[in-house]
Amino acid sequence: MFKGGFIQNLPKIYGLYTGGFIVFILMMAIAEQAGVTAKTIGILFVAFTVAIYALIGYLSRTVQVDAYYLAGRQVPTVFNGMATAADWMSGASFVALAGGVYFGGYSYMAFLVGWTGGYVLVSTLLAPYLRKFGCYTVPDFIGTRYGGNGVRFCAVLVLVLASFTYVTAQINATGTIAARALGIPFEAGVWVGLVSILLCSMLGGMRAVTWTQVAQYIVLIIAYLIPVFWISNKIGAGVFPHLMLGDEVARITELEGQFGLAKNSAADMKAAGVPGGLKSIAVAHAGVGAGGMAVWKYISLAICMMVGTASLPHILMRYFTTPSVKSARKSVAWSLFFIFLLYSSAPMLATLSKISLMDPNLPTGIIGKSIADVQSIEWVKQWSSQKQVFIADFNGDGILQLNEWFMRTGVVVLATPEVAGLPYVISGLVAAGGMAAAMSTADGLILAIANALSHDVYYNMIDPKADVRKRLIVARVLLVVIGAAGAYIASMRITSILGAVAWAFDFAMSGLFFPLVLGVWWKRATREGAIAGMLSGLAAGTAYLIYVYPKFLGNPAWLGIDHLRFGLIGAPVCLVVMVVVSLMTKAPDAATQRMVDEVRVPSGKSILGRAH
Amino acid sequence: MSNKEKHWQKTKGHMIMTLCLWAFFSMVIFLFGYEINSMSFLGYPLAYYMTAQGSLLAFVIIIFWFANKQEKIDEEFGFGEKED
Description:
The complex is a heterodimer of chains A (612) and B (84).
Chain A lengths: L9 H24 L4 H22 L5 H6 L6 H12 L2 H18 L1 H24 L4 H9 L2 H34 L3 H16 L3 H30 L6 H4 L1 H14 L6 H7 L19 H18 L3 H4 L8 H19 L2 H13 L12 H5 L2 H8 L3 E3 L13 E3 L3 H9 L4 H39 L5 H24 L3 H4 L3 H10 L1 H9 L5 H22 L18 H18 L5 H10 L13
Antiparallel strand pairs in A: 1-2
Helix pairs in contact in A: 1-10, 2-9, 2-10, 2-21, 4-10, 4-16, 5-17, 5-20, 5-21, 6-14, 6-16, 7-8, 8-9, 8-21, 8-22, 8-24, 8-26, 9-21, 9-22, 10-21, 12-17, 14-24, 17-20, 20-21, 21-22, 24-26, 24-27, 26-27
Chain B lengths: L2 H29 L1 H4 L3 E2 L2 E2 H31 L8
Antiparallel strand pairs in B: 1-2
C-alpha cells in the first residue's frame, strides 16, 4: 500500500495515525464503561501517546547534517504548517489560554490577536527571505549577512535568553501533567517529561522534531476541539459553537448584572485563606473598557506579542525546512490556519465553561446555590483537595456569590469536561493533549538553543574543521545538557521567579526583530549597526524590565508599559541605534549587497548550501 | 530600471499593502473597541467577536492572499520557482 517515498506517503501515514488514535480513544471509552479506573485510563493515554512520539523520533534518526538541521528541506507546506502550529502552541496555550480569557475578558484577548497577527509579519517580512538564504539557524543568517563572529555571537545571546525563558515553563508543564497522569511527585514528573522530550529530538534533530510535532498537533487539536463541541451540544448552546454562542455571551452579561461583578480586596482574600494563584470572576466577559488608557493597554500588548512572534527563533527556523521559497510563504498561512483552529476555540470554551457554572437554569450551575450543596459535588471536592478551587463565604450567608468562587486558570480547560458531566475518557484525552502541546514546544525550543550553540558557536567559532560526525555528536550532547538544565531549574519550582512567557517575546523583539528585518529590507545596514542595535536594544529592554517588575525594583510603569510590554522600550532603542550606527559606518561591500539582492529573488540557488 | 529592481519595487508595494490590512485588523479597529462593541455580529458584540475570532480569521485570509499574489509577482518577472 505504500508506493513511492516517505514524503509522498505522508497523507496516508498520518491519516492512518489519526484513525488509530481515534480507535484508541474509543477503546478507552469502552474500557471506562467496563470499569477500568480513571487513573489507569489517564496513565494509558499519556503512556501510549508518548510511546508513539518516541517511535517516530527513533525512526527519524539521521547522520546527515542537512537532515539534522533542516529536515532535509523537504517538509511539505501543509505538514510544516501543522508542525509549526504544534511548535507554537505551548502547554500554556493549551492549558491556560481559555482560563486567561475566562478571567481576563477583552483586555486579555489582546494576546489572541497578538499571537496570530504576528504571522502576517513573519510571512511578509522574513520567512521567504530566510528560506532563500538557506541558513541552519537564525544566528547563521545574522552572522552571514552582516559578516563576522561578533555579530553572530550577539544573535546567539538574544536567542538563548529568549528561548531559555520560555523552555523552563514548558518543561514545568510536562512535569505537572506527567505527575498528575502517572501519579508520581512533581520533581520526578519533570525528569519523565524531559526524557520524553529528548526521545523525540535526540536521534534525528530537526527531522525527528518535525514528524513528532505533526503527530503532536493531531493529538492536541483533537483533544481541544472534542470537549468544546461536545459541551456546546450537550447544554444545547449550538451545534457549531464558534458561530452560535451569541446568546450565551449575552446571557453571561445578563447574569453578571444580576450577580454583580465585585473585585475582592487582597486583605479579604488573605483573611479567608484563598490559596495563591486562584482567582474569582471580576471582569466582564464581553465588555470593553472605555478610555484612552484601556485602548493603549490593549494595542500595546498586541504589538509586543506580534513583533515578538516575528522574532522568535524556534518559529522562524521551521520555515527553513520547506522545499522552496513559495512553499515557505504558503506554509506560514497553513501554520496560522492550524493555530486559528485552537485559538478561536479558546474563547468559546471559556464561554461554555462560564455559563455552565453561572446559569442557575443549567443542572451544572453553582453560583447562587447553597455552599453546603456545592461543596458536596464530586468534582468540587476533588479539585478543592488539590487547592485548585476554593470557596470563601465572605458575607456569611451560606449562599455562593460570584465573588466567593475561586479557581486556578488551568482548571477551566482541565476540569470543564468533568464539570459538564462528560465521561472521564475526555479528561484523559485532555491530559494527552496538554502533554503533546508542552512537549512539542519544548522540543522546538531546546533544538533552537542547541543548534545555535553547536552550529554557530562550536562549528563556526571554535572548531570550523570539525567533521560531520563530530558536529552531530556535539549537537546531541548540547541538546541533553540544555534539556537537563531546563529540567533542573523547573524542578526547583522557581519558574514563577523567572517571569511570564510574555518575556520571551519581549526579549526576542528587543534584540532580534530589527536586525533580521533590516538585514533583508535595508542594504545599508552594517555589521557595526547590527551589533550596536542588538546589544543596546537588549540592554535597554532588560534595564526597563528590572526597573518596572514588582519583584525587582518595582517602579511605577511609564505610560502603562509594564513588565509584559518591555519590548516597547527595547525594540525602538534597537532600531534607532542600529540605523544611526549603520549610517556612521562604511556601507557594506559589493559582495554583501549582491547577496542581499539575491535573497530578494525567489528563484535560483540558496545563499548557503545544503551542507555548510 | 533593471528587471530585478522592478520586481523589488512591486514586492515592496505588495508588502506595504499587506501590512496596511494587517494594521487595520490588529490595531485600527481596536482603537474603537468601546464604540463598536454596541454593534453586533452573529449575535456577538462586535469588538468581542473581532478579538475572539474575526481578526484571527482575517489574518489567515490575508496571508493566503499575500502568498498567492506574491507568487504571481515572482512569475511575472521570471523569478518563479519551477520545482515544488
